[in-house]
Design goal:
mainly alpha, 3 strands, 4% strand, 18 helices, 417 residues
Length: 417
Amino acid sequence: TSGDKESPYGYQWYVPVEYMTKDSEIVFEWLKPHSTILVEFDFEDASNYIRLNMNSAGYYIVNYSYDLNNRLRNRIDTEENYKELTTPEAQGMMYDTFLLISAGIKPMSDGLDLIDRMFKYEERLVPLKEISRRITGVAVHISEEEELLKKWKAKFQGRAKALFNKFGAEYFKSDEAAEMDLPKDNVDGGFQDRLKVVFSVQLACAYDVEECVNAATAKFDAYRVGSAEPKAEFKATILNTVMSKEYDENIESDWDWLWKKYTDDSTSASEKQTIYYALGLVQDDDKLLEFSNYCLDSSLVRPSDSLYILGRSITQTKKGRVVSWQFMQDMWTRITEEFTDALFAVDAYISGVLSNFANEGDLKDIEDFFADKMDSLGPGKAAYESALQSIKGNIAWLKKHKEAVKAFVADDEGDDD
């Protein structure tokens, strides 16, 4: 029903409603102002369901009742039935559910359950990216909880491996000579096929799938000795994967080589950006601090890169955030003096360093540090206040959803026993 609420602006909406039930074909009707659409539905039949906004024809959110929600989810809990969902419908279900969660209308458990059901069977690129975006979103929120984050990644590692084996493994091998050529653009969807290969490799490396990590490491080694330049589609994934590994003497040596590559005048601006994002992933406090100090030396790092490295590259991980926050406190006067002509970059720096913290202690430390600096922040004041809101939002998110995430990953622990 469209309800009887009047718009303060006099708007009236004609809403396209496309739906089907277990026993019907797709039905299309217009929901007109102050009208109701009645659907015949047999609630006695436990297998009956309704799918609304087929193909996402309407620009609106679908909020199923508890009963209808369970019926639809039970319906798509087999591969055959799940694949009845069109690409827009599958993407729309995920999008709608998490939007309703963020509005406090649905519980996080609904979103996690939907991720679990959809990720089991989904192989289309667009819905896969939507699922991955939601998984990554949760990971960002729990990034301060190291053990929980490890379990979260482990939860999806098996599916990431399966997708890699099916779509990426033949194109991403330790021995490049044994690889298949990437799909070419053609009328049969070669472009989408290539993107799916790249996505499956990115996903597998991000979730530490051994075969993918080993191939990335071999490719980095070949790149370092000059025997093979990585394919452009995989370069960032290769560098990020190696720099994210547990820190040891080999990673230190790789980092030093990559840093030298960054400072080489022959390295293009776009490649420098790929490199500096990878360098910021290194898991060592001293190396991150060394990288931070390099950013204040204009003979080593271009001033246009410096604050983006400090605020976006180094802050990608919890370890990096801690180092970057301490560096901000120690070097605040120097940074604000040296970058007075790059106020837009200072905004990004403040936001990048602060926004992903998620506990009351860090929030208090940040507020205390900036308490006597508000007048000197200038345009950066808006970025600071926005960062505070983000931190408070992160704290609230964890209080509200952390237990649901813990219960979700605990299901797998029980299965292993």
